[in-house]
């Protein structure tokens, strides 16, 4: 009679793939090892389930089924990343492979644990993953379809493309805005935090919606960006120029392919280009490089092209509830656009060039409240949007309501404007708070 094994379950610490390859495995219970994540392999322990242990095995399998790998933790092999220096490529990919996104648990005693989480600078939100106890309808990656979006562009997108000309050839009617030194320093630190968060794998900037980084929905430009920028975290002395060359070639590739992108890919390309540009300024210290000035021109061109595909939901303008997918795209575009304008203003201030008010954006909705932006399910978002429509019966809050008054207002109009600003501030996230701080300290109100 065969002797029963001493242990009911295997004590092997390495996963099957690493065990076969005889390599070190950093896998922990309920997660995938870095090697399998990077190579796209199936990561699992060899299980020798003991008798009468069905429930334990099912619990383990449910945990495995619920796992989601985020792009920023690394989902590409080194061969997918262009690099002109083998030493830099090796060290960069080592940093990517050995780094993990922090996954703090949601607050609250009754909060359900999540297997994947993305942390924004100054805040956190949870990407719920699919488990055996979760209905497919609540899984973001299974319910979102970004086809046939009903969007329109109510502004002149060419004015966005040509904004860089205003500093050299002022247009009649343009209003100069003077940032106080403290506001300029504040913008610098905020935008720098967006760049460093991406470089360190701590999350994504708050102009990228959490659905955009789900494994099944992420677009190639954004996937490449969130992986490629990780090599800038711990650059070896003297390797900054090589890293800059790698990013520069990726930016050039994005811009050259802009005409072939569809709506969603163009948005991802536009967001990626903005992240690369911020890394050039804040991480690689390339503010004296003429390439950054050219990059800003191309960035504004991408912004204009993306806006032409639609930046406002048709239903938004008709005081109706749009599709969740359409709203996600429109809101992400607007947040990216507002961030780009702050980045443009910062570069102009550093070059001692005049900065003009973005009057071409007049009429665009201001950043939405955090309940809408962070909603994890369609039903949660629809409920929040119904409340939004009920709260803003006279029309939503627009970005130009944070600007100086175009004409003197009487006391009644001033009080009404103050009430609307206060209502908007009640439930905004950290991105909206940042915009209000900049506009309030610059224009007052």
Summarize the entry for a quick read.
By secondary structure, this protein is mainly alpha-helical. It is built from 17 helices and 4 strands.
Note down, in words, how this protein is organized:
The chain has 445 residues and is mostly helical. It has a domain at 120-362. It has helices at residues 16-21, 34-39, 54-65, 86-97, 140-143, 157-161, 181-199, 220-228, 240-256, 263-282, 290-308, 314-317, 324-350, 370-373, 378-391, 411-425, 430-443, and strands at residues 116-120, 123-127, 151-152, 312-313. The strands form two sheets. The chain has a two-stranded antiparallel ribbon. Strands 3-4 form a two-stranded antiparallel sheet. Residues 48-139 have low confidence and may be disordered.
Topology readout:
Blueprint: H1 16-21, H2 34-39, H3 54-65, H4 86-97, E1 116-120, E2 123-127, H5 140-143, E3 151-152, H6 157-161, H7 181-199, H8 220-228, H9 240-256, H10 263-282, H11 290-308, E4 312-313, H12 314-317, H13 324-350, H14 370-373, H15 378-391, H16 411-425, H17 430-443
Antiparallel strand pairs: 1-2, 3-4
Helix pairs in contact: 7-10, 7-13, 7-17, 8-10, 9-10, 10-11, 10-13, 11-13
């Amino acid at each position: 009679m065969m002797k029963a094994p001493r242990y009911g379950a295997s004590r092997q610490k390495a996963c099957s793939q690493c065990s076969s390859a005889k390599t070190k495995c950093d896998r922990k219970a309920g997660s995938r090892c870095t090697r399998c994540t990077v190579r796209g392999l199936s990561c699992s322990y060899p299980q020798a389930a003991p008798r009468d242990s069905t429930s334990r095995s099912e619990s383990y399998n449910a945990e495995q089924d619920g796992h989601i790998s985020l792009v920023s933790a690394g989902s590409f092999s080194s061969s997918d990343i262009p690099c002109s220096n083998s030493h830099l490529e090796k060290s960069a990919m080592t940093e990517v492979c050995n780094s993990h996104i922090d996954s703090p648990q949601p607050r609250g005693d009754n909060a359900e644990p999540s297997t994947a989480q993305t942390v924004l600078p100054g805040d956190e939100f949870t990407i719920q993953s699919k488990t055996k106890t979760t209905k497919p309808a609540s899984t973001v990656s299974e319910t979102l379809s970004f086809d046939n979006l009903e969007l329109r562009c109510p502004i002149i997108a060419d004015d966005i493309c040509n904004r860089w000309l205003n500093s050299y050839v002022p247009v009649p009617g343009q209003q100069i805005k003077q940032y106080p030194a403290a506001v300029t320093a504040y913008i610098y630190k905020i935008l720098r935090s967006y760049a460093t968060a991406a470089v360190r794998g701590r999350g994504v900037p708050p102009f990228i919606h959490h659905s955009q980084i789900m494994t099944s929905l992420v677009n190639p430009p954004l996937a490449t960006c969130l992986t490629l920028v990780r090599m800038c975290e711990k650059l070896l002395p003297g390797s900054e120029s090589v890293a800059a060359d790698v990013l520069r070639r990726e930016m050039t590739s994005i811009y050259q392919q802009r005409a072939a992108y569809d709506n969603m890919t163009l948005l991802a390309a536009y967001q990626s280009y903005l992240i690369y540009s911020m890394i050039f300024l804040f991480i690689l210290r390339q503010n004296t490089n003429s390439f950054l000035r050219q990059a800003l021109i191309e960035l504004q061109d991408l912004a204009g092209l993306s806006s032409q595909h639609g930046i406002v939901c048709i239903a938004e303008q008709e005081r109706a509830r749009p599709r969740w997918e359409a709203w996600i795209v429109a809101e992400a575009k607007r947040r990216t656009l507002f961030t780009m304008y702050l980045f443009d203003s910062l570069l102009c201030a550093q070059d001692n060039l005049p900065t003009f008010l973005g009057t071409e954006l007049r009429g665009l909705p201001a950043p939405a409240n955090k309940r809408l932006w962070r909603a994890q399910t369609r039903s949660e978002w629809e409920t929040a949007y119904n409340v939004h429509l009920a709260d803003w019966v006279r029309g939503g809050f627009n970005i130009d309501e944070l600007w100086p008054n175009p004409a003197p207002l009487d006391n009644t109009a001033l009080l009404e404007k103050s009430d609307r600003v206060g209502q908007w501030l009640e439930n905004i996230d950290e991105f909206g708070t940042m915009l209000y701080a900049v506009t309030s300290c610059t224009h007052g109100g």
